[in-house]
Specification:
252 residues; mainly alpha; Endonuclease III, domain 1; 12 helices; elongated; binds iron/sulfur cluster
Length: 252
């Protein structure tokens, strides 16, 4: 199957089966989503959803977070990964929102990336989820799953994956394809043990095609070797049995 066919089947399958895929982070407005996405770097959405209710209660606006001390914010997020850095980033981000962006979350990737703690991936999430830009944020799931399915080729960096996906996906698809790939990676195409046996898209997955064709060939080869060995064994036994008969005849 060629790459274009894989893209076609990918879009068709997920448009039909997950037309409403969306982020699993809990948020009520763009500011809260920005906070949640910054916190979610190298951490699970489940963990972030556990800490954000109290955090949003205490700091409901950019202004309130901008006035907070890093230590106080740290107290609310100590159970997420890299809490020290993230606490600093959150306070810095809120200060810049207030001072530079009139307390509004900016809409463009360039402006978003000026905020502390906001890299290309986070900027793409905000731009696509809040402002419906056709951007595609590449996290570890997107990177892995796109490669396994065969949507990307030799893409060594998140930026390379992003470019290949944007080039090949229909123009109205990237923002939802991001969620399709994340959810598939989170629940089916797991990093260490992808659940290929129950995966509904294995029929157009390159990884499946490669690994299962190889496995099937290996199995056939093993059976062939066994058959040859069995035949040789049978021939040897026949020979011994004939020899024994012959000797028995001579003795009689
Ligand atoms: S078949 Fe396996 S590798 Fe391919 S997408 Fe499904 S789970 Fe991932």
């Amino acid at each position: 199957m060629n790459k274009q066919d894989r893209y076609k089947h990918f879009v068709e399958y997920f448009s039909t089966h997950q037309p409403g895929a969306e982020t699993e982070l809990h948020y009520g407005n763009p500011y809260e989503l920005l906070v949640a996405v910054i916190l979610s770097a190298q951490c699970t959405d489940k963990r972030i959803n556990q800490v954000t209710p109290a955090l949003f209660d205490r700091f409901p606006t950019p202004e309130s977070l901008a006035e907070a001390s890093v230590d106080e914010v740290f107290g609310y997020i100590r159970s997420v990964s890299y809490p020290n850095n993230k606490a600093k980033h959150l306070v810095g981000m809120a200060k810049m929102l207030v001072d530079v962006f009139n307390s509004e979350v900016p809409a463009t990737q360039d402006e978003l990336q000026k905020l502390p703690g906001v890299g290309r991936k986070t900027a793409n999430v905000i731009a696509s989820v809040v402002y419906e830009a056709q951007a595609i944020a590449v996290d570890t799931h997107v990177f892995r799953v796109a490669n396994r399915i065969g949507l990307t080729t030799n893409a060594k960096t998140p930026l390379a994956v992003e470019k290949q996906l944007l080039k090949n996906l229909p123009p109205d698809v990237p923002r939802i394809a991001h969620h399709w790939l994340i959810l598939h990676g989170r629940y089916v195409c797991l990093a260490r043990n992808p659940k290929c046996e129950i995966c509904p898209i294995s029929w157009f997955c390159k990884y499946y095609e490669r690994t299962h064709t190889e496995a099937a060939l290996q199995k056939a080869e093993t059976l062939k070797i066994k058959k040859v060995k069995d035949q040789k064994k049978k021939a040897a036994l026949n020979k011994i049995s004939k020899e024994l008969k012959k000797r028995g005849g001579n003795n009689g």
